[in-house]
Here is the input.
Amino acid sequence: MRGAGMWRFAFAMVVGCATAARAADYPEHPVHLIVPFAAGGPADIYARFVGQHLSQSLKQPFVVDDRPGAGSIIGTEAVAKAAPDGYTLLVMSNTHTTNESLVTKKPFVLMRDFVPVAPINSSDLVMVVHPSVPATDLKAFIALAKSKPGGLNYASSGPGTPYHLAGELFKAMSGTDIIHVPYKTSSGARNDVIAGQVQMMFDAVTTMAPNVRAGQVRALGTTGRKRTAILPDVPTIAEAGVPGYEATIWIGVMAPAGTPAAVVETLNASIGAIVDRPDVRKAWAEQGAEPMKMTPTAFEAFLRADIAKWAEVVKLSGAKVD
Here is the structure.
């Protein structure tokens, strides 16, 4: 038994050293960034941006793979089942922290089946209506909605997404009854609001601002604590008629549970270097996005706090998966 025990110890040491060596050499072949949302949305756009810079700094391709569906669950499940070697990563958002309380029957648990890697950025949302809606400001829209309960609709990219919960929080805090119309993608929701098929939507300001400027939609308010520089003439929802209202969207990266700590640290440092670049900060500020930088430990604490925050919003709003 003594000889067998020594053999097992020696074998474990060899395996451990081999794993450490592989982690030190990471990455040795292409890395896949799974985006569980549709092409053209914020997660896809910033995943491609970050992936391009990671490819340059880590000398291997970082390939973006969009796998939308079921409110992010399809693509997320694929990453949960992937090998924990750092070659399949999840580009996630507060859709994931919201779904922890909103969607009880999922094939994964976020903080059990994934490890935090790094945040990327955050941005405000903007509440927009089609120009045909007879309300030129937020108070007028609230009065209109209260005058016809259930008579107005709002679009989202699906249950549990920031767009959905922003709408449910608005309904709860404004005392309005507006019908949720879930789409499979943010682009589908956005296109139908622009076309006038649905009256209202909360969308990422980074994506919708050009449509506001083009007059395709009317902005009634942004969702941050202060006005966004990208739409400075648009008041926050809190100042325009719903005191205390706040909802944002953020994007980050996670990896399957069991991914070597050295790999996580390499990715965290590389992503942090990207979001720290002055040219990146300037470009993102012009788009309405604010860089986020945290250690894996700090990002884990942030995620757990966000899960708790959105659990309260789900409870307050009575939001349900449609």
Summary: Residues 124-240 form a domain with the D-Maltodextrin-Binding Protein; domain 2 fold (CATH 3.40.190.10).
